[in-house]
Design brief:
By secondary structure, this protein is of the alpha+beta class. Helix content is 31%, strand content 26%. The longest helix has 21 residues.
């Protein structure tokens, strides 16, 4: 092809890593994004979501100075599962016509690993596999049970004010899955969010795990997202360039404009 645009999406991030290694292109480790999906009653977040559909909050934890952020807020939506090559993770979505009484969002902790670690995707998949091993799919736990150091059970879930929208999730204990550092960061973030949206840090708040975002190791790119190989571009989350739908879309526009410009020059 005269121009090649590589946009594999997050599920193809691992494939892209192997491809660029065979081409001899230099890569930089991207942070690993690991966390949980939080589900609360919709009125808890309504003041914010009515003004901004997908609000973004960034927090730096006191315990570890890690960056913790909200991601993919779905007002009056549902918690759903995703599958990456047989690994089940958690996500969320809203519908235009169908509304629920709950709002859900992810809390993700970004960790940048240093040498000799070079497999952030494998690490994220390992945590997801561990969750699947313990639950068969996805674990759900009430925040109150997590803080009390006990697993959630069917009986305790029935007493929860927040009814889970992902009915297939297995009540369990997320502390058997996520490392202490991640749990400490997420609990701090929930306390901070409670100052903005009172009710987020409630014993009835539901936590689903795990949510992992797989990003490829980032290539060294020019301003127009071109690799060291002429006319080979990479875009989107799967290429490690962006971390969200809007930004991924914009990266495609940037490359399209560059290709149009080069065509006009010829």
């Amino acid at each position: 092809g005269k121009y090649v645009v590589v946009a594999p999406g997050r599920s193809g991030a691992e494939w892209l890593t192997s491809e660029v290694q065979s081409l001899g292109l230099k890569t930089l480790n991207n942070p690993v994004d690991v966390g949980l999906r939080v589900e609360v009653l919709a009125p808890v977040m309504e003041e914010i979501t009515s003004a901004l559909y997908d609000p973004k909050f960034i927090y730096y934890s006191k315990s570890f100075d890690d960056q913790v952020r909200t991601f993919c807020v779905t007002p009056q939506g549902e918690v759903i599962t995703e599958s990456y090559g047989g690994i089940i993770t958690v996500n969320g979505q809203s519908y235009a016509e169908k509304k629920t009484g709950n709002t859900n969002f992810a809390i993700l902790v970004s960790t940048s690993f240093t040498e000799p670690f070079k497999e952030p995707i494998a690490y994220g998949k390992y945590l997801a596999r561990l969750t699947n091993l313990l639950s068969g799919s996805v674990i759900v736990q009430r925040l109150g049970d997590l803080e009390a150091g006990r697993r959630s059970t069917e009986e305790r879930m029935e007493r929860s004010l927040v009814v889970p929208t992902l009915r297939m999730a297995t009540p369990g204990d997320l502390s058997f899955v996520l490392p202490y550092r991640y749990l400490a960061d997420i609990r701090e973030m929930l306390q901070a969010l409670d100052q903005i949206s009172p009710g987020v840090h409630s014993k009835h708040t539901l936590l689903y795990g795990v949510e992992v975002k797989f990003y490829s190791s980032r290539l060294q790119l020019s301003d127009c997202l071109e690799t060291k190989i002429h006319n080979l571009f990479t875009i989107g989350d799967g290429a490690g360039v962006t971390r969200g739908l809007v930004q991924a879309s914009v990266s495609g526009v940037i490359v399209a404009r560059e290709i149009i410009k080069r065509e006009k020059q010829h």
